[in-house]
């Protein structure tokens, strides 16, 4: 064996087992979330606390488990419930997986009934009653993608988009296209938004349309699965290990964070790349501070680019989210600061989200850095870092 063949053997072996490991992570995440949905539906159907159905019981679950399951939220659990109800065929894969496990492990995550042993519980999830329920819902679908194809080939991030489609045939169409085309989740969302299913139905030459679409699609890479928020939260990875920041952007944010803290006029650092969930989508705020003098959150978003109204709108969305979801009664409205590097000139945009300027603007201008200070800082750092 020559040296080139030896190194190629290393490369191919690494690629094979890395792919297997990523696939195993994705399968585990998918089956876990399906079971989450299963637990919710079973509790709603057979639970004693029937008055707590709906959002009330889900919020109770979130409050009880948020310290143990970092990604858990009302939206996350609603998606899990819908995932379970939309994909009954995955039940067979779950049942098959459980049968391969030692009974002591099965006992950890199967809903217990009084007096049941682990063996009883395993028989329960594979019981005629449960299987019949899955079969009944499968017959209502009339046609569906096999469970093994779904679990092995489609990441959970894709399912979050697919369960939004109420038409089963439309959903299956995108399942098959995602599998055959190895679409990224961004590509799946783009094709749904551009009505690929509807265009395919109207097209006289469907094969040609299919070929044209898949020539330009963004392919799913193994690393995409690990970088997906659902996966790194599931694995407990720090956000910054998977977020892709340019070296310039990272250096600017590092310096900006220190600059604001050194001003010494009330900034208290709270978070870097703060993750928030809005309408089922994850967003990240570059820097979050709490200002002890103004008694409000300060949200800072940095764009290594020219100013765009889209950026201002995005920051305003963050500000309004904090105003509705995070702000305490004793707090004032949050403030957003947008920093754009531009090509030569830094631009600073404040998004105040409807603050009462008569009561707050003078204090706001005294305690926050001026636009000139921030502009000078960005300009100076851009020159130093380039």
Question: What features would you describe in this structure?
Answer:
- The structure is a single chain.
- The protein is of the alpha+beta class.
- The chain has two domains: 3-225, no CATH class; 246-385, Trna Endonuclease, Chain: A, domain 1 (3-Layer(aba) Sandwich), CATH 3.40.1350.
- The chain has 19 helices and five strands.
- The protein has helices at 3-46, 55-65, 74-86, 90-99, 103-106, 118-125, 128-141, 147-153, 156-162, 168-181, 185-193, 196-202, 206-215, 222-227, 229-235, 247-262, 309-326, 357-367, 371-385; strands at residues 267-278, 281-291, 296-303, 335-340, 347-351.
- The chain has a five-stranded mixed β-sheet, sandwiched between helices.
- A hairpin with a 6-residue loop joins strand 4 (335-340) and strand 5 (347-351).
- The radius of gyration is 25 Å and the shape is globular.
- The two termini are 47 Å apart.
């Amino acid at each position: 064996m020559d040296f080139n063949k030896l190194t190629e053997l290393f490369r191919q072996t690494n690629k094979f087992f890395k792919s297997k490991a990523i696939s195993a992570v994705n399968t585990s995440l998918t089956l876990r979330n399906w079971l989450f949905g299963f637990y919710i539906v079973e509790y709603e159907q057979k639970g004693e606390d029937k008055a707590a159905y709906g959002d009330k019981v889900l919020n109770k679950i979130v409050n009880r488990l948020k310290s143990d399951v970092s990604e858990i939220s009302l939206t996350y659990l609603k998606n899990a419930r819908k995932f379970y109800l939309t994909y009954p065929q995955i039940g067979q894969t779950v049942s098959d997986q459980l049968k391969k496990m030692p009974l002591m492990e099965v006992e950890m995550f199967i809903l217990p009934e009084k007096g049941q042993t682990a063996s009883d519980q395993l028989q329960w999830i594979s019981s005629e009653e449960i299987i019949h329920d899955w079969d009944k819902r499968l017959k209502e679908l009339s046609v569906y993608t096999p469970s093994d194809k779904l679990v092995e080939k489609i990441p959970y991030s894709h399912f979050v988009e697919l369960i939004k489609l109420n038409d089963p045939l439309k959903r299956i169409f995108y399942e098959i296209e995602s599998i055959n085309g190895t679409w990224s989740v961004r590509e799946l969302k783009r094709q749904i938004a551009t009505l690929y299913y509807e265009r395919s139905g109207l097209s006289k030459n469907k094969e040609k349309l299919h070929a044209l679409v898949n020539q330009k699609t963004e392919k799913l890479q193994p690393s995409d699965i690990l970088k997906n928020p659902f996966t790194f939260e599931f694995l407990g990875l720090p956000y910054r290990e998977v977020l892709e920041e340019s070296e310039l952007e990272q250096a600017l944010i590092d310096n900006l964070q220190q600059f604001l803290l050194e001003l010494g006029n009330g900034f208290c650092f709270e978070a870097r790349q703060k993750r928030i969930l809005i309408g089922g989508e994850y967003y990240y705020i570059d820097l979050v501070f709490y200002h002890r003098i103004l008694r409000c959150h300060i949200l800072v978003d940095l764009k290594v680019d020219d100013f765009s109204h889209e950026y201002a709108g995005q920051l305003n969305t963050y500000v309004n989210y904090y105003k509705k979801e995070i702000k305490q009664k004793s707090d004032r409205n949050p403030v957003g600061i947008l920093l754009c590097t531009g090509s030569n000139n830094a631009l600073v945009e404040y998004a105040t989200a409807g603050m009462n300027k008569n009561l707050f603007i003078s204090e706001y201008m005294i305690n926050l850095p001026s636009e000139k200070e921030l502009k000078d800082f960005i300009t100076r750092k851009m020159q130093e870092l380039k």
